[in-house]
Amino acid sequence: MQAGIAILVFAGLMAVKTTFAAQHVMGGSQGWEESVDFDSWSSDQSFKVGDQLVFKYSGLHSVVELGSETAYKSCDLGTPVNSLSSGNDVVKLSETGTRYFACGTPGHCEQGMKVKVNVVSSDSTAVPSPGSGSSSDSDSSSGHGLRRASIEYMLAVGSLIMGLVWSF
Ligand SMILES: [Cu+2]
Predict the structure, then answer these.
(1) What spacing in Å lies between the alpha carbon of 152 and ligand 1's midpoint?
(2) How many CB atoms are located within 10 Å of the residue 105 CB?
(3) Is residue 134's pLDDT more than 50?
(4) If you measure from the C-alpha of residue 122 to the centroid of ligand 1, how many angstroms do you get, rounded to a whole number?
(5) Which among 4, 42, 37 is positioned nearest to 165, based on CA atoms?
(6) Where does the record place Low complexity bias (predicted)?
(7) What does the alpha-carbon distance between residue 91 and residue 135 come to, in Å, rounded to a whole number?
(8) Segments in 31-134 forming alpha helices (H)
(9) Which of 5, 92, 114, 165 lies deepest, with the highest CB count within 10 Å?
(10) Residue 142 in this model has a pLDDT that exceeds 50
């Protein structure tokens, strides 16, 4: 019985952990493709420490991580921080800051196949969007984020309690 409870507690903790970390499939359903407008796609995303980026693509493409805004802007792929080419690559966001990714196929970056990922602390509930202004705006969006986080937390705790009840 005790071992069973320990397993349930562990499963519950895993549920909490996974509810808070998100996987971002780059480009959404289209994936890592030239046709995606990555600027507008990424503006709807909230990238947090602990989240993962997933790059899904065909053999026409690859993933090159760039080390600077300058390299990103000019599509300078000469000194990449990291290169990936499996077609189903997972990149973990382990700290705050900006990460830059582009396709390594000649010409694709210039065509817009690149994305900038602004990673914020996992405590943050709101990502200020450029040009958005008033304090009431940011208040309401952070309130929304908090509400969402607490609902996810309650779901995780709820499933843990359900598990405990069933074990008796
Ligand atoms: Cu490409």
Answers:
(1) 36
(2) 17
(3) no
(4) 30
(5) 4
(6) 128-143
(7) 33
(8) 38-43, 69-74
(9) 114
(10) no
Q: Which of 132, 129, 84, 131 is nearest to 105 (CA)?
A: 84
Whole-structure pTM value? 0.65
Residues 6+ apart with CB under 8 A from 116: 42, 72, 98, 99, 100, 101
Residue 17 structure tokens: 């952990």
Q: Give all strands of the β-sheet with 23-25 in edge-to-edge order.
A: 23-25, 52-56, 88-92
Q: For residue 21, how far is its CA from the centre of ligand 1 (angstroms)?
A: 27
Q: What is the per-residue pLDDT for 135?
A: 40
CA nearest 137: which of 126, 148, 146?
Answer: 126
For the record, the structure tokens of 41 come out as: 């796609």
Between helices 135-167 and 2-20, what is the axis angle to 10°?
160
Counting residues of the chain whose pLDDT is more than 70, the rounded percentage is 64
Residue 63 tokens, joined: 């993933």
- Which residue type sits at 122? S
Q: Which amino acid is at 56?
A: K
- Domain boundaries defined on the chain: 1-20+135-168, 22-121
pLDDT: is 128 or 23 the higher one?
23
Tokens of 27: 């480009």
pLDDT digits (tens, 9 = 90+) for 26-60: 999 999 999 999 999 999 999 999 999 999 999 99
The Å distance, Cα 33 to ligand 1 centre, comes to 6
